[in-house]
Amino acid sequence: MDNYNPFIGKTYTLFGDTKSTGQYYSTIRSLTNQLIDQFSWSEQDLLLYLQKSSRNRRFLARELRQNPLKSRLGTILNHLHETLTTYISGIEKHLRSEPLYKFITDKTILTNRAQYYSYMIEIELINRLNKKRFLECNYKIALLPYCLRETQTECKSVTDEIDYYCRKCLKSCFINKVSTLLQENNIHPYIWRTIRLKSLLSQLVQKYHDVGVMGIACIVELTMGMRSCQKADLPVIGLPLNANRCIRWMGDFYENSVDLEELKLLIS
Ligand code: SF4
Fold it and tell me: Can you say whether the dihedral through the CA atoms of 95, 100, 101, 103 is positive or negative?
């Protein structure tokens, strides 16, 4: 695959210490299956447990530091830590460098290691639970992050009544590659720049009734967006960016990518 170089983000990289992201996805699938088997949970039960536990970032961090035998959550987090630590490369350095006021103004940027582990499994579980219903929807929309575009050229995307869409000016641009794959599968790709998620979704539901949503974003943003769609009872699926490298995290825009093979699997 051209233009598929390993990227390191501010807090995470799905490449880990390899040259591709395939190992990350096979690890996440395997860990999710192990948790379901170990605790005899359904996918839905495990999802609810992780969503509830991950609301309190300090509690989750404490459980990760605990002796794994002391609690069920501690056992789960320590098990995830053994395998996933390689993907969360810069988290402690990032958290140490953030100013105190961010604890009030931007809590998502302060997501800690234990929350990352939980969110990674959460995304996998929501995809498993929603994929069939998403694919059966009359109208399917995908919201792509602007930071996935080619950064070396001026983007030619234009807006319609929903938001910006890609004009496919550059073959190497990841938004172009992703948009093409999505359109081949009858999913309408938009570059999410201006519209508010809540009002967009209610407009689409009024118009099409049966609406499926796909998101691509960094792990934290994606998890929050998927939860919002779940609250609105919309079948949502999502794919994380290979690293978090946008201006919000890095102070400027840097090239990014997404696993196109995993995207094909998710939408077919
Ligand atoms: S290919 Fe699309 S998203 Fe990429 S720079 Fe061109 S118009 Fe923008």
Answer: positive
